[in-house]
Give the backbone structure.
Amino acid sequence: VGRARLPEANSLIWSTEIVIGIVVPAAAGLFASLADPAVVLAADAATYLVSAALLTRIGTDLDPTARAVSHVRADIAEGLRFLWRQPVIRTMSLTGFGLNLAGGGASGLLVVHADKVLGLTPPDRRVGLLYSAAAVGGLAAAVLLPRAARTLGAGKVSILAYTLFVLA
């Protein structure tokens, strides 16, 4: 897409992922609350079969040779050395890792929160909506990101976004 359109392209990728993150949990929560558990499990199993069928369509050999694995290790080591020598990229990468770790922990505790604090039981369809609600803010951020980056600059937007994430 070129450097000039990178924020818009990145926003499109994240927006698509987030929309899926909104729709699928809501639909799954509704489906689980309306359908027989055996049907829900059969549908889940069917998605794995579809995934397996799609994986068979990959037209390349996925069995790495020892030389390819050695090459990948060397590439990873080179990338890590580069990362460590770049203070801005290193800081942003480590910060991103911490945010993803915290986000994963918060997401994992969402079910506990739904049960203990909100009193939502597993068959309650609002559990799916709770997961969808968590993605709505992400969608808004992905849509607003390109304009904010053009107006304020990527650095300021990153600092602001990290601060808002911590507060949230």
The mean pLDDT is 82.
